[in-house]
Write a structure and sequence with these properties.
The structure is a single chain. With 296 residues, the chain is mainly α. It is built from 13 helices and no strands. Helix 4 packs antiparallel against helix 12 and helix 6 runs antiparallel to helix 13. The longest helix is centred in the middle third of the chain and has 28 residues.
């Protein structure tokens, strides 16, 4: 079997899962603080992954791979996820996910410099379309009434993108000698422990978990975590294990299409004309990137 097919399917599945997760966590973010949400999500994800590892045969982990995955977890989960949830409080799910598409551009640049991946002129044209699409949607969100809070959301979103992109590059090398499910578990545990120790140090841990006394909220959180853990995190690592980082992340950025539909159906978010135009521009860029990086 061509492992690129597995990687491609995993990337698209991850994109859909992140789209669903953005919708679900948008609601949770209205009741739980960003740090509390990161801690709760990480803890439940670690439990799910631990059960899977117990039921399956796992292999030993080299010291260097372990270090890289811990670093990746701290960057991508402790810092990146927390900033993502903070941004989600100020931005709509579609705008934030489209902003996260900028991570595709940043990841390609990082892959060029640190992984030695090379791209041609068509790839850079695709990147230009992606950036243009993001700019159109964000401009539509920055109304005078929302400018202060939304600008804060954009800053948090950009910092989240930076942390997640770097964490992907760091994790890529470690995946050469470890399974995707083990890598996901190590990243999740290290990222969650980072948030846990922050809560203890700042004496805010108790306040973060107060909302989790609501049974219905916890049940909703479990559903959200299942989508993110096995869809968003695990499938994303499967994709970068079997295909180039640039290709995997390009396919992962198809979530704006899923979010645009899901947000309208389940969150009743108004679809602005500029949001549609921005999504179209972004998807043109993604198609160009797929064509040059995968189909040839």
């Amino acid at each position: 079997m061509d492992f690129r097919i597995i990687g491609t399917a995993a990337a698209l599945g991850s994109a859909f899962s992140w789209a669903v997760g953005a919708i679900l966590f948008k609601r949770l973010g209205e009741q739980i603080s960003p740090l509390g949400l990161t801690l709760a999500k990480g803890s439940l994800s670690a439990i799910l992954l631990a059960v899977i590892l117990i039921l399956t045969q796992s292999q030993g982990v080299e010291r260097q791979s372990l270090f890289l995955l811990i670093l990746s977890g701290l960057l991508g989960i402790s810092v990146g996820d927390t900033l993502f949830f903070a941004a989600l409080q100020d931005l709509g799910a579609h705008a934030l996910v489209l902003l996260s598409t900028l991570g595709e551009v940043l990841t390609i640049l990082l892959a060029v410099f640190f992984l030695g991946e090379r791209h041609n002129f068509t790839t850079w044209i695709g990147i230009l379309f992606v950036i243009s699409g993001i700019a159109v949607v964000l401009q539509a969100k920055l109304t005078e009434e929302q400018q202060k809070s939304t600008f804060r959301g954009v800053i948090f979103g950009l910092l989240s993108v930076l942390c997640m992109s770097v964490s992907i590059i760091v994790a890529k090398e470690a995946l050469a000698s470890i399974s995707a499910i083990q890598a996901t578990f190590i990243r999740m545990v290290s990222g969650t422990l980072g948030i846990f120790f922050l809560g203890i140090t700042t004496q805010q841990l108790g306040g973060w978990i107060v909302p989790l006394r609501d049974f219905k909220l916890v049940a909703y959180l479990w559903l959200s975590v299942c989508f993110i853990t096995f869809g968003g995190f695990w499938l994303s690592l499967v994709s970068i294990k079997y295909v180039d980082v640039s290709i995997a992340n390009t396919l992962n950025t198809t979530d704006p299409i899923f979010v645009l539909l899901l947000a309208a159906i389940f969150r009743h978010e108004k679809i602005m004309f500029k949001a549609v135009i921005g999504t179209i521009l972004t998807m043109i860029g993604i198609i160009l990137l797929i064509k040059v990086n995968y189909l040839h």
